[in-house]
């Protein structure tokens, strides 16, 4: 009997588990563009366009390899607009009772599959370096799940940057050589844009008509197939990898990409694999084209952070999405959806998010994430925002980064202390503060940087929890050592900022 082989929009890998387990001669591949997924949160129009274009091209490639593909386009009249609905429709059409699927990255989608009145086999998604079971075994019995220890195991497992059983260059981690402030006087290579072809143009027109979500659709710069993704990787390795490490945490006005890779959407869709990406980077180091600090810093992001957050995601279960350890409840300020902001760093991060569906890690963590955390925004709303607006956002990777790393909503599973800072950090790492309405050096008053005011408000609000944290005690001692009148002015200033946010006024 014919079986249905489900391939989701982020499973565009020719040997993804469900395809490997299927039989070309009798099974039918089901791919479906559905409004249910396009609107589960208001996804950025570029993200929708990327996924649909890549799906269409992948389906054609599968047909070229001899697969029978039942492909539902969003605009098809008979499209039920949900994955489950399309599977049921195809089951009736082909007389199928069985579905082969690769485990989706969202609990919601997994639950929908398990609820189907069909026999559904969900296979592990093995396009990762560590399996779920391997991560669970690593985590078992550990008091603290430190990424660094997991990362070292992944180095040993993959052999990347290893000399025998020792790390190449004599160190596991070259961060002390990386993470420099931004240099304004450097000429930087711009990432190569992929020109939209006819398939992409069709999708862009359709997305423009159907999705009035936050975010600019054009210009659309993303690659939508494996060849384009490989070209983007090669472009990064040749032009930006050498400075990746040192520029990793820097922010510059008008330089949205700096030396970042811009490959997360391709990895997350399955157009690139984590190991091939790391090997390309390791090769560049072996050839002597890039310093070890850059290669190590990059490889750590992939076999360390990316694998680690995925491990945490599956280990924690669906309840992770409801965590709110700090009891935050504020609405997400309008400035996140394109409303005006007088903070230059926020305006830059949100502006490029709107235009490019992209902001790099430090903008996500130390600007938009930091501000939401300091202001006490409900982490569920912050999560919705990150899941919506970034080109690479899929729940398995976005949620642990947002709820765990950025919002401390899991109570410190991913980080031993919250990622919060005053304006001083942003001033050190960027050139935003010079042209800002606010003054980063001012600690009180109406022109004081809101990060300065909210930082102390946050620490005061959560004093009971954090005063015992060995990495934060020093900040409480600094605060306690300040003049009482000064402290009152800081807190009153923070209250004014929060009141303005609540009233929907520009901050
Ligand atoms: C609040 C928040 C939300 C995030 N949401 C996502 C998301 O939805 N999807 C996503 O892929 N990444 C997410 N990240 C991680 C990181 O910001 C992006 O992977 C990175 O900015 C992608 O751009 P790039 O390819 O230019 O990355 P680079 O800075 O060039 O890094 C190279 C690669 O390392 C990987 N990587 C680096 N850091 C992480 C990390 N913390 N977790 C997982 N992978 C990492 C990515 O695959 C990335 O492509 C988030 C981070 C934060 C703080």
Structural description of this entry:
- This protein has 507 residues and is mostly helical.
- The protein has 3 domains: 3-123, Rossmann fold, CATH 3.40.50.620; 132-191 and 240-316, Serine Threonine Protein Phosphatase 5, Tetratricopeptide repeat, CATH 1.25.40; 334-502, DNA Cyclobutane Dipyrimidine Photolyase, subunit A, domain 3 (Orthogonal Bundle), CATH 1.10.579.10.
- Helix content is 48%, strand content 6%.
- It is built from 22 helices and 7 strands.
- The chain has helices at residues 17-21, 35-38, 45-64, 83-94, 107-114, 132-139, 147-158, 198-210, 226-239, 244-247, 264-269, 274-286, 292-316, 344-356, 361-375, 379-389, 395-406, 423-429, 450-461, 463-466, 473-480, 484-502; strands at residues 3-6, 28-32, 68-72, 98-102, 119-123, 162-163, 166-167.
- The strands form 2 sheets. Strands 3-2-1-4-5 form a 5-stranded parallel β-sheet, sandwiched between helices. Strands 6-7 form a two-stranded antiparallel ribbon.
- Helix 9 runs parallel beside helix 12 and helix 13 crosses helix 17 (395-406).
- The chain is globular and about 80 Å long.
- The N and C termini lie far apart (62 Å).
- The model has no long low-confidence stretch (mean pLDDT 97).
